[in-house]
Q: What sequence folds into this?
């Protein structure tokens, strides 16, 4: 777990609370968004506790960057703002959970364990590094994902053949000689 907050006292209190849990291990703390992104990429924690409001880069942007580089890392957003728009923005940025400061011990521990379970499942789904390097674009998973295109077949009226068209298109695209 990585704890990110620009207030030192908050970071220390969160660490003290979570270190009482037998299965929680901290990889470190960060006091800026840039530092959080750097540490998350280097240490690959399963869970990041992230404050939204920070001076250099807010937690929303840091979350987007972390999720873009390491999609299996789960972010639990912490804020003093009890505003639904903040919650929406956090979830859109990629946060797994959203807690109002100061969270109760039970809420905090439950959110960390939920996020950890999801991170563990996401890591298990990740292909090995040698498979990632063979994907188109020969870069990390993110550059391979950018090459994906989604084709939607839709009609506002039923019975016009969308399912047939979508099925035939899927079969045609699956063929080896298809571009």
A:
């Amino acid at each position: 777990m990585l704890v990110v907050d620009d207030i030192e006292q908050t970071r220390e209190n969160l660490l003290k609370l979570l270190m009482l849990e037998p299965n929680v291990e901290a990889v470190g703390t960060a006091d800026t968004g840039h530092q959080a992104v750097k540490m998350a990429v280097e240490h690959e924690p399963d869970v990041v506790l992230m404050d939204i409001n920070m001076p250099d880069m807010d937690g929303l942007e840091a979350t987007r960057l972390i999720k873009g580089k390491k999609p299996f890392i789960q972010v639990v957003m912490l804020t003093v703002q009890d505003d639904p728009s903040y919650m929406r923005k956090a979830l859109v940025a990629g946060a797994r959970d959203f807690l109002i400061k100061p969270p109760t011990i039970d809420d905090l521990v439950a959110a960390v364990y939920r996020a950890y379970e999801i991170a563990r499942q996401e890591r298990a789904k990740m292909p090995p590094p040698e498979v990632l390097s063979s994907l188109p674009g020969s870069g990390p998973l993110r550059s391979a994902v950018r090459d994906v295109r989604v084709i939607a077949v839709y009609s506002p009226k039923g019975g016009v053949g969308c399912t047939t068209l979508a099925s035939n298109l899927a079969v045609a695209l699956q063929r080896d000689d298809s571009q």
About this structure: The chain has a mean pLDDT of 83. The longest helix spans residues 105-125. The first strand starts at residue 2 and ends at 4.
